[in-house]
Amino acid sequence: MSETLNIQVRLSAIPCPICKQSQFSINPQTEKSYTENFYKARCNNCAYTFTVSTPTKPIRETDPDVDQWLGGLSCPSCQERGAELDLRCVPSVRDCIYFVTCKACRHPYHENAPMEAYE
């Protein structure tokens, strides 16, 4: 599965902050930085856009506080602790959502970040 298609599938788990629909298109063009690739997600219903990023370096090297927080997450499927970051998005000024995969059972899920994790 391509990275943009994977992002599109994962984003279907969250509502648009404007219209509450859950269908997004991902622009395949990326902006690249040293630590992340940035994509634009666009709501198919209301055209609201927001940024989605995928890591290009291990999160433990670029943001150890977030890495520690991810290590403490409990999987909703197997209840084991520890997750790998797949992507993150900031759909509104009050939300930062991390899409992760459980290290134990490989179950994909998402978590809202505590405010201090992305300030």
* Chain-averaged pLDDT: 92
Q: Count the E strands.
A: 7
Number of helices: 3
Number of domains: 1
Structural class: alpha+beta
User: Could you state the order of secondary-structure elements as H and E?
Assistant: HEEEEHHEEE
Shape: globular
End-to-end Cα distance: 32 Å
Low-confidence stretches: none
Task: Write down the Rg.
Answer: 14 Å
Question: How much of the sequence is in beta strands?
Answer: 35-45%
Q: How would a textbook summarize the main sheet?
A: 7 strands, antiparallel
Helix content: 10-25%
List keywords for this structure.
alpha+beta, 3 helices, 119 residues
Description:
The chain has one domain. It contains 3 helices and 7 strands. It has helices spanning 3-11, 59-62, 64-71, and strands spanning 24-26, 31-32, 36-43, 49-55, 83-92, 95-102, 108-112. Strands 1, 2, 3, 4, 5, 6 and 7 form a 7-stranded antiparallel beta sheet that branches. It is globular and about 35 Å long.
Short recap of the structure:
This protein has helices at residues 3-11, 59-62, 64-71; strands at 24-26, 31-32, 36-43, 49-55, 83-92, 95-102, 108-112. With 119 residues, the protein is α+β, with helices and mostly antiparallel strands.
